Fold these 2 entries.
Entry 1:
Amino acid sequence: MPAFREQLKSRFAALGAVVIVVLGALVVRLWTMQVLAGEKYAELARNNRVREISLDAPRGRILDRNGKLLVTNRPSLAVALDPADETIRSLIVRAQSASKNDDPTRAEIRETLGPVADMLGMDPQQVFESIIDARIEALRPRAIAVDVPLDVIAKLSEQGSRFPGVRVEQVAVREYPFGSVGAHVLGYTGEISEEQLKRSDPTAGYELGDIVGKAGVEAQYERVLQGDKGRRLIEVNASGRPIRIINEEAPIAGRDIRLTIDIDVQRVAEEQLARAIAEAHRQGFTKAKAGAAVVLDVKTGEVLAMASAPSYDPAVFLGGISQSEWKALTDPSREYPLNNRAVMGAYPPASTFKAVTGLAGLEAGITHSGRYYRCEGKWTEMGEQWPKWCWKRTGHGSISFDGGIEESCDTVFYEIGYEFYKRKKEELQSFARRFGLGDRLGIDLPGELRGRVPDAAWKKEYNRDYPEWQMWLPGDTVNLAIGQGDMLVTPLQMAAVYAGIANGGTVMRPHVLKDVLDADGAIARSYRPEAAARVPVDAGNLAVMRRALVRVTESGTAASAFRGFGVTVAGKTGTAQVAGKDDFAWFCAFAPAEAPRYAVAVVVEQGGHGGSVAAPAARNILAKLLGQPIIEVHAKDESR
Amino acid sequence: MIGTSRRSAGRRPLDKSRKERFFDLVNVPLLAFSALLVAYGSVMVWSATSGMAGGDGLFKRHLVGVAVGLVPLGVAWFVDYKALRHWSGPLMSLLAFLLVSPRIPGLGTTAKGATSWLQVAGVRLFQPSEPGKLVFIVVMAALIAEYEGRIERPRDMWRVLGYLAAAIGLILLQPDLGTGMVFVGITMAMLLLGGLEGRRFLVIGALVAVSVTAVFAVDGTLDKIAGKDVALKQYQKDRLLVFIDPERDPAGAGYNLQQSKIAVGSGGISGKGLRAGTQSNLHFLPERHTDFIFAVLGEELGFVGAVALLGLYLGLLLTALSIAASSRDLYGALIAAGIIGMWAFQILENIGMSVGMMPITGIPLPFMSFGSSAMVTNLGAVGLLQSVWSRRYGT
């Protein structure tokens, strides 16, 4: 036994200990990493190698109340650039990398993307910009053109090697079998905007490049129509090249929805609105360009038609709207064709409001059916220095309350309004609000306006910088009584008021959705009609008003428009004075008067007189609804 | 003293059986652990290269390396290690030549920033620093053995450290930082067995820390003055520093470290199965058949496979330690200690870097990493240990 062994015994032990400590430390480290933190690292490894591509769900279709397809999908050939291709991926990755030096040069972009851009008639630089957005999923093919003609597709596929990464995909785009009919209700679709993306529900999984509803029903029922995306998990290697598909979840198609709109009535409403504008021109009101018409079912609040002029073609938005088209649609001289005036237009209701004032007066006991008024043309109750005039300057002479409605006599309603003023309780305003005026009705369409029912508090706040104009004056209530002054309503609100009068004081909430359908066409859920407002009004007073409104179409301001109409109609004309503009023509009605089913409101901006411009349009819309012949009407009316 | 012990232990009983004589010559555990490690390594190299372009060729080259390594194993075993002690002078020259040779014009070639390959007539032969480790061990063993297990005078320690510093100085010419660190590991193990006082290791530890800092500072200054890498390459510095600051160089060394940790960690308890490692086969892991072979093992065979490997290493190192303890002289024991130091340090450094415990340097994992130079060297080391074992009774 060599002596050094004895001498160095402890040294051997120390060396052994070092070895054991080294290996022990490694075991401990491996234990923490592999056993304790294994899950975390496994997740990191998965994220390393798995990329997700979402698969778009087919968008739900939109049907009218009779099942006619209003908006559907048609297959379209789209050209996309696929990052699975090495050259395309390289362009994208380098453009997205932080280093400026890596950015692809213009020459390189031209070389890679030039051929396909030329085929599609696009600029290579523009194609490049559209594919490098870092917010798009890495492996998602970038669509660069839709509705590509077949001959271009054929060339692209024949000479595939000239066009690196080019994929032809069949995509679904919106199709509108009825063209622009119903455009304002239906709305249009387009790529989700950044702002929409920010505001969207994070669980809905929206991503840049998604097609979403932008207006109308498309926007309102976006979540129902959109469906759920599918997803495809792709395994990639370290350089991002796809290796295989790991898993695929099929998308779930969006639901079809059925609207309350009857496309045939809708078409007539739009035609009649256009004819009313033409008629206004014929009568010398050449500034008439815009208007709206609404048809409600008085029992349910269903919107059977909702027209707005001018209109637009929703198909121009397919595949992205061009700058020039967008400019044309938003140019002020074009009267904003994208706006749905039925809910986004606020006008003074003028004499159509007299039905509300009249009912309020009857309810308050200020007036009654047999009460007679004296109309001299000039009305000076508030003092000689503040005269008001009836539209008929020569005066109606002795005129009853019912006659006031029939002839739209302003004096009768000045009297009623002045009486309300003197009572100082703002009863007229609160009565108007009970009909839902001055607030949104809650229709299922975006952008609905509240309108305005002016009162003392409002006036004070509105003129807070002009103390001398803050006081509520007798003339304010008197003007309000004839629907002028600061009163503002939407055509939808006016239709709802007349539906309410027809429906015993209950205003049903207007809506355009009838039901949502299952994949097999069965009804998944229906819109349940509900009351939007209940006006506590005596049935006898309602009967008085109804009778008076019938006289309007039989012998009053709208008699000429309704001559020969086979169904009794209760309605009221209106001619709104708007500062700096020609008069706005109004007509509101419900029919049949004895058993009301439909309420209609028509307004033509700067169209002149309600009885001669708006009432004929309403007549023909009602004719379509009630099975009466649609005829060309040239009516006369000088009232306001 | 050595003389007497030789006489007393050297007498051999004449009635030994053939079997006993076989075990006198052959240390079965050493060969068994080595063989198992070589086999384990071959399986991992096969798995790691299976998805690579030309992977088959690499695997065959690995097996050729193993076969070639049997030659130095046999030679080292056959040669009496004691004779080497008298060849210190020529061996030192050989060592110097091996360390400098890649820098000699016409002989060296550059790969991955370091000039560490010997190349003759356009044929890449081997990395001379690998066998250089064995030569270093033999030379240092002769040096330290002079002190007969007691290094008490500081000047003795400084002399040993001087040789170490000279060797490191030469290797930094390549520059091969990893091998330089292995030299330190070897020297420490030999000094531990060679009788250096415990507290002196603290001095050496402080010295290493200071010199590393100094090297970085001086090198950085030189780089700034020259405007380019003078001695250490920037990537080497990044690799060292990324261990401290993972955010440094996230696309380069930091990426490698992160991918390696993901590979090992995601292996979990039982691993993803051979050739089924996603980190490895989808090319996220760099250098996966060489420096990062352990990450492949950790990912594919999990904690179980990793502990099995560490178990084999433990067996190998303890066998080597027992050989050191059974050596007939201090010189043989020091050779064994040097080999233990070499292997232990490489295991610690290589696995340590794969799991983020140690800085990243290009040190192969003994018997596991692809690379013939290292394989030949490690099998040569096994031969040296056998030589010490076979001659423990004297002839």
Entry 2:
Amino acid sequence: MLLAVLSGFILAALAPWLTRSLQDKAGWVLALLPAGLFVYFLSWVPVVVAEGAQVVAYPWIPGLDISLTMLVDGLSLLFALLISGIGTFIIIYAGGYLHGHEYLPRFYAIMFSFMAAMLGVVLSNNLITLFVFWELTSITSYLLIGFHHEEKESRWYALQGLIVTVGGGLALLAGLIMLALAGGSFELHEILASEELRDYGFYAGMVILILLGTFTKSAQVPFHFWLPNAMAAPTPVSAFLHSATMVKAGVYLMARLNPGIGGTELWLYALGIFGALTMFTGSFMALRSTGLKAVLAYTTVMALGTLTMLIGIGTEQAIIAAMTFLLAHALYKAALFMLAGALDHETGTKDITRLGGLRQLMPITFITACVAALSLAGLPPLFGFIAKELMFEATLQAPLISTFTTVLAVVSAIMIVAMAAVFSLRPFLGPLKETPKKPHEAPLSMLIGPVVLAGLSLVFGLAGFLPATALVGPAVAAVHGAPLDFDLYLWHGINLPLMLSVLAVVAGLLLFWQWDRVLAVYRRMTFIDRFGPERGYEKLMDGLVWLAAWQTRLLQNGYMRNYLLTIVLTTVGLTGWTFFVHTGSSAPLGTIEFAVHEIVVAGLVVLGAIVASVTSSRLGAVATLGMVGFGIALLYVFFSAPDLGTTQIMVETLTVILLVLVLFRLPAFQNLSSAAARLRDAVVALSLGGLMTLLILAVNAVEVTDRISDQLVAWSYPEAHGRNIVNVILVDFRALDTLGEIFVVGLAAIGVYAMIRLRAEDRKK
Amino acid sequence: MSTAMGSLILRTAARFLLPLLLLFSVFVLLRGHDEPGGGFIAGLVGAVGFALYMFAFDAARTKTLLVIPPVVMVGVGLFAATASGILPVFVNLPFFTALWWPVELPGFGEVKFSTPLIFDIGVYLVVLGSVMKIVLALAEAEE
Amino acid sequence: MQTIMAFLIGALFAASIYMMLRRSIVKLVIGLILLSNAANLLIFTVSGLTRGLPPLIPEGAALPEGGWADPLPQALVLTAIVIGFGVLAFAVVLIHRAYEVINEDDLDKMRSTDT
């Protein structure tokens, strides 16, 4: 299981190389991994159906009893299957869509990282692990949206998506930590078993913080604007991330936490109302879009809103509807996106109004689009119909907000029917229109995914018991907290939901018929663009830039000594204040005892430091600095540190060499400051020096009884076989520290080398 | 600069001192676990030896004498140090657990070969390589 | 001696800050060297000074005889000295390079270069 999650990262590292060596076949070969994962996750289905949720633990730091745990239940399996299954087709599809693209290897690397991160999100049992994977999906998604990084627009939208989702991520982190405090554990299965989450003192704050994270990720109103903009990404990315997986991470988390923190009024109102509003906004904006991908993006917003609303309603009916809708949506949306990409790829335009009459030239695309769009519109005999009927039933039975949700659901459904018709009929029927490219059928790699996924929509619709027992059932059990007995089938008899469906279809087709007029109406509604939440985002970003510029002008004034003065005076002020508050104005002087040789060396060091500060000759300064350095080396030796003494002598020698090599190529000392400035600096410097002296005196007065190192000393010979304890600490006890330190030393050398190379290159020019 | 500073006495001294300092640095490195010394000090001693030689002669000659380019030394050193930490992972011990292989060498007594020793050698190479890279780069920029 | 060292370190800090506040770029380098020495001595001193008892275990024993100086700060300071040198080398070359590019020793006149 661990390998299943991490294999994506491993393949991501190899992907660039594999893509280059496999050439045209790369997509097909690379798709073997997600396909294999899909089969692997399928093999877990019988286990989960029979035995319920499984917690898989891997000891990580056994000494501290920290292990990496994963939660495999119906919900995580449903997501894992969608991610790996749709992922398989997307990888194949990308091979065709980005065929011969310069950055295809990079694309696969990021795509597999993303897939692995997403699997990590849905399979993590630990909140922190979950959060890390969550943020990884944001970062990889940023790289994918900005895939066409030469285009300014791509970069802007990528950054927008990142800032919105990561901003929400910050709130989520706080929320998850509160959740862990409330539940007394970071492990999901333990938290969800806790009965006291809803009585937690900060319950409302915790829920709001978590929802800020999930709402931004899952593009709920008012954060929905980033998702349609994320369509700047290549189509395979849109199909995978922004329809089937990443945006559903938020939905996943809400569903996951539902048994623990759901079921309260806050939960119902927050999710129910925002979800319904998102559902309406998504379909309302979809209706006015003319871009193939934009239409689908807004219908995704609609679907995410629907899912959030259903989870918020939280009745048994609603949970069943949510999981069914989730599966149905993933199947048709991925198919539709891939078809949109195929149309764009083969004709050269994404604008629906510029497409027409392609039914003869692209027959497979046409038929598949019809099937998938029927599922989107929620018509029988497709799986989408079952999902929509269940959704209507759930909204009708919703507590407290049933009128509100039902009205919005029906209005949305009408608009979605119209857009499903627009999407599947406009490009294909009527006279053939002139397009930038000469259209022909897309290659196999770009059709296999849509055909299989649309086919599944049909099969699941006709044989509802298949998903009901294997996929939706276990997921519902996980979200509801206990298994529910239910079945999925097309015909429920003539009832209210069916009537609502009929109403939606009829009204939707009317809208479709009059779509050109609808567009004209929309065009007059310019306020949407002028006052939408996206403007708010832009204002916020402008404000941030202004604030940064203002504080930079204030703080970063370019005078080195001003920075230093600020730092020193702040240190002296704060430390000094604390010091006097705690110890009073008297510092214990301690006993003054010394040996003659010690005091002589100490005196020379101080003398050297003073001379180095006031001398007007560079050579003098270097010589006295040497005196200071060697004096300190002697002090180390006097006080039982032979290793330090030797090191100091060597470094001192090298420092002199360094100064000789460089310093004498710089100008001679000059007195640039006025006498007043020198006096001020002397006062500041002495105040810090005085403070340090006082601090050391105060520390000296503290009697230290047990030292950390006593244990190290005791272990040194018996355990680490070394008699020089300092060296044993360096290379054994604290080897990881030392490793970091030698990396710093190596980096400094490379830095020096780079700067000198830079100079040599400048000279050549 | 090399000609201005490289007096005859300095050259003669450098020629004698370098092998002595190098020998000393290896000695300090190997005994470092038991007596004062270790990778840091040994690396610095070696670097001082080479730096002295560079002052007496020139950077190019010092480079040939070093045989291995300093940057490679840094790389090998970092690799050795990291590898000594990863090695125990392969025998299912936590990262950076020390492993010991005491070897009985005829006529030399027991030698404690261990991952900390590999680590210390890594430190030695990084310090020597880094300092030499800095000093040589500066001296070459000069010329 | 702890008391005397406290004054010695104070003097080193004062000298280093004074030098770093000068406008001449070369004096900044000297200030840096003094600062790193002062910081190392600070860590070394506050852990307590011990005469003539280096943290070495004699052959055949399991512990150093008759007490020992704290080895942990020594280990910390040892790497700090070497890193201090690396950072110093970097700073010196950086300053040298800055001087070469703008041909100016006065830090005050360097302020318009980083915008």
